[in-house]
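Comment thread on ticket #2218

A.B. wrote:
> Attaching the input chain for the structure job we discussed in standup.
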Amino acid sequence: MTGAEGPRRRGEQRRGEELRRHILFVAKDVFLESGYERASMDAVAARAGTSKRSLYAHFESKDKLFLAVLGLIRELYLGRLRTPDAYADDPAEAVALFCDRFLRLMVWEPQVQTCRLSMAGAERQPEHAHAYFDAVFASAYERLAAYLSERYGLEGAEAPALAEDLLGRTVLPRLFRTLLGIEPAAKEPPAEAPAAEGAELDAIRRLVAAALPGGAAG
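C.D. wrote:
> Ran it. Output below, let me know if you need it in another format.
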C-alpha cells in the first residue's frame, strides 16, 4: 500500500481530517517496520511531524491507532482489488482474473508484512487479527460471493461457500509458502491492468472453469 503523503511547504500544517489521514499513513509504516509491541506513539508523532497531544486527540491509544490503520489498509486494498465485474465481461474469466488479482495482492511484500504482523499478535490481541481478516479475506470473499450469486443464480450459502473454496484453492497455497519464506514476496505492486497470460493464471483458469456451476453464465 502507498506510503505517507509527501513533505509540506515550510510553515504549512495539516489539520483535522487531513492530519488524521497523514498520521494513519505514517503509523502504518511505523507498525510494519517495528511491529506492534515495539512501535510507540512517540515514534508515530515524531515521524508525522505532530505533537503527542494532537496524536492522542485523534487516537486515544496505540490499540485504537492500530485498528484505524487496519481500516486504512482495507480501504487501499479494496481499491486495488476492485470487484470481479471490473475484469471481464465473461463471468468465468472475470472470476479467474479476480482470483489472480487477489493472489498477487496477497503476496505483495507490504501485504505479507501486514499479515505476519497480525498473526504475530493474534494471541495477545485477537481483535487485531480478526480486524485484519475481516478487512482483507472476508471482504474478498464477500465481493466474489456477491458476483457468483448474481451471475450464476446461487442461493443461500452456496455462493459464499464457492467463493471461499475458489479463493482458498487459488491463493492460500502460494500465500502460505510466502508467509513461511519459502517463496519471496513480490517487491513491486501488481500492475493495474490484469495479467493476460502466464502459467499461474492458466492454472487458475482451469481450476475456476472446473468449479463453476454449468460453465459461463449467459
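A.B. wrote:
> Thanks. Noting for the ticket: The mean pLDDT is 89.
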